[in-house]
Amino acid sequence: MKKNILRGFVITALLVLTISSVGSAKELRMLSAYHENFIFTKGIALPFMDNLKEVSGGNVTVKFNGPDVIPTFEQFQPVQAGVFDLLVTHMSYHAGTIGLGVAIDATTADPTKRRAPGGVFDFLDKEYNKVGMKVIAFPPLAPYQFVLKNALNGSTPSFDGLKLRSNPSIQNTIKALGGAPVTMAGGEVYTALQKGVIDGAPWTTVGVKDFKWNEVADYLVRPTFASLSLMICMNLDKYNALSDKEKAWLHEAAKKTEFDSIAYYKALGDTEITALKAGGMKETWLSKDDAKNVEKYWNDGVWAMAIDKSGKVAKDFKALAIAQGLTK
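RESULT FIELD:
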């Protein structure tokens, strides 16, 4: 009889612990600018979700919601309002609300240096706090490259007379290289190249194969340059409501995701470039002067965009990045 009573107490205790564990588990709602099967999601959003679940022992999980729930360019406000907890995005998508974030792409994609105390990460976090958001991570993606229909002739400026697909972040780089920017979404590039509407397009070293641009363009422009990053941010009130332990888990997962993304996109980019070359794509080079300066063209363009939108605070941010050796 005593054994049965003891067994009953043990079973009851285990049930209470299980119920308490389930009850204390927290599920955060994430919005992502990219669909679940997109390469940026596979290398950043999904690994972050897995990392957070792992480091928290399953106590904090994330529910994914893509642009089919809220369109990409409309996602910042619902997270600001607390309808969703987390956002994975690129900073240019909410530049109308806070334009300073784009400037992280003008800094060296080194998570350790970015996170130095009082450095660029902390600077941007304080600015995003002012609009009700908490910066969680800046996971690096991959270097930029241009894809062209035809080879370059070696003259300066390298893109003289060429029309290239553009977005706000890279239009100044295209102009500095002598090209004419044509704003369009990445999904429109294939047809535009095929019909001769544009002569080329910029993209990272991952994704050209997915878009199948190699079917309508023959050249990869070298050198590659810069490195884009995405942003993971959180509603500030929701962040402040987390326990200290939950915040620690969140930041541990964020840092791990930043380093994981570097390795992931490096390996993926190398594999993709090898496959593109094996399929017939060739390299063509910017002129000597442009090759030497393309990184500066990019940085100057991004800083100009940030300063245009954010004024003095962007100038202060640039001065900090220069002082820390994180920009040219």
